[in-house]
Amino acid sequence: MSVQGTILVLDGTSTNRIMLKVQLTAAWYHVVQGEKLQGLAGLLRRTKPDLVLTSQTLPDGSAADVKKLVLANPDLVDVPVVAIAPQNDKAARLKALSDGLDDVLAHPFKDTFLLARVRSLLRARAETQELQVENSSHPIGFAESSAAFISPAKTARVAILTQTPRTSALWQNALSKRTRYSLSAHTTSNLQAVLSGPLPDAIVFEVSAGPSGLKLLADLKSRSTTRHTVLVGVLEEENAHLASDALDRGADVICMGPFCADETVLRLESQIARKARLDQMRASLKQGLVESWVDPLTGLHNRRYAMRAIDQIARKAARSGKGFAIMLADLDHFKAINDRFGHTGGDMVLAEAATRMEQTLGSAGFIARIGGEEFMIGLSDTTQAKALDLAGNLCACIREKPFDLPDSAAPIPVTISIGLIAAQPNVSTYSHQSQRLDGLIKSADTALYAAKSAGRNQVRLLPSAA
Predict the structure, then answer these.
(1) pTM here?
(2) Over 70: is that where the pLDDT of 291 sits?
């Protein structure tokens, strides 16, 4: 039997635990059972559940106490804890949400709704775990603790989507008295009004029995702009089948009708806080990926990027039949600059030299700092004559204007040497490509050494075989 995840069921009444176990194991979940708070910390450590379903009241505590114990375990802080409350007990439902529970289900419930909510919660946790793994595996700047809580901004934007203008106005009025979110009211027939303005952080939408409501969900989830928007569905009346469909189509939470402003606000606060945390993780991941290709001192690309870019340039050349060029450039007598002005002065020269060369190169190719005072330049769709002309301009942009340094009474002259290899396209199979590129880079390095030996401040070319 394939097990989809481990679910911990906590209830002081054995028949309730057994009923839940039967429902969940039939859907191929592994179920662990408990009945009270005593010993729960050890049970959590041993079983490491993916989800906890707990009665709102236990023999020695409450669902809120369970949530605290789960949060106390650093490995489980992202595990959803769902309270099970008596049916038609609105006060109990609101208390569970205000206590920080991830959701509250009214007992008894239909199998379809229970399993849809379980699937939804486990998908949400999997998304969080994937971001945590990607962040933690990255070598740059991902020290964000998974337990960190980020409060949603009070000015979060919330759009209300209902079937009629009257309903949306009533919901907006009720919510505005309970929250400082920026609210806007729309009808489902005018989704464009929501998408054309500032994108909302959350959408509270009326789940209709017709296909249009579920189609709206699919539309919102398929768009890159609203894929991560919080979707809070509100049913006119309790309808387990419709609620299940909405959850499986991407709704983050479902409020069984009729509309309750207090419950909606509690769910919005929880979901928008979660979105803020995930947005920060995505931004951190994106920034880390950018930084992994960038040299922090000069802002140029780094060696890792350069090797990938040269490979792509060579592939393009093989397809187009046009030539490409590789240059290795090295600032002359850079050690003397460091010795005289310190590493701070040397860093200023590197940064300014990078800026000048990047501006001179323009869109003709890429430039990367590959170590110390050494740079790599790659040009695609070029000829030997064009590459030589550009290399000369790169030398001139460093030589013609001395560098200003704070510790120098007068600007200091700096020059650069460049080794160039102009390559013809290679139509051989890619299995030989990496070896050929290594050879080209070594040839450019040989040309650079020749430029240094000839007196520096010049370009030396090494011809390339076809």
Answers:
(1) 0.73
(2) yes
Give the structural domain span for 43.
Answer: 1-109
What is the rounded average pLDDT of the residues 295-323?
92
Q: Is residue 160 part of a domain?
A: yes
- Note the pLDDT of residue 288: 80
Band the pLDDT of 147: cuts 50, 70, 90. very low
Using DSSP bridges, classify how beta strands 374-379 and 324-331 pair: parallel, antiparallel or unpaired.
Answer: antiparallel
Residue 14 tokens, joined: 């054995």
* Beta-bridge partners for 428: none
Number of domains in the chain: 3
Mind listing the pLDDT tens digit for each residue in 192-230?
889 888 899 999 999 987 777 788 888 899 998 999 999
Q: What CATH number did the domain enclosing 267 receive?
A: 3.40.50.2300
Q: What SS3 string covers the chain? A: CCCCCEEEEECCCHHHHHHHHHHHHCCCCEEEEECCCCCHHHHHHHHCCCEEEEECEECCEEHHHHHHHHHHCCCCCCCCEEEEEECCCHHHHHHHHHCCCCEEEEECCCHHHHHHHHHHHHHHHHHHHHHHHHHHHCCCCCCCCCCCCCCCCCCCEEEEEECCHHHHHHHHHHHHCCCCCEEEEEEHHHHHHHHHCCCCCEEEEEECCCHHHHHHHHHHHHCCCCCCCEEEEEECCCCHHHHHHHHHHCCCEEECCCCCHHHHHHHHHHHHHHHHHHHHHHHHHHHHHHHCCECCCCCCECHHHHHHHHHHHHHHHHHHCCCEEEEEEEECCHHHHHHHHHHHHHHHHHHHHHHHHHHHHCCCEEEEEEECCEEEEEECCCCHHHHHHHHHHHHHHHHCCCECCCCCCCCECCCEEEEEEEECCCCCCHHHHHHHHHHHHHHHHHHHHHHHHCCCCCEEEECCCC
CB-hemisphere CA count at 13 Å for 229? 29
Instruction: Note whether 47 and 147 are same-domain residues.
Output: no
Q: Do 162 and 99 belong to one domain?
A: no
CA distances from residue 14 to 10, 36, 111, 291, 374 in whole angstroms, order as listed = 10, 11, 19, 54, 71
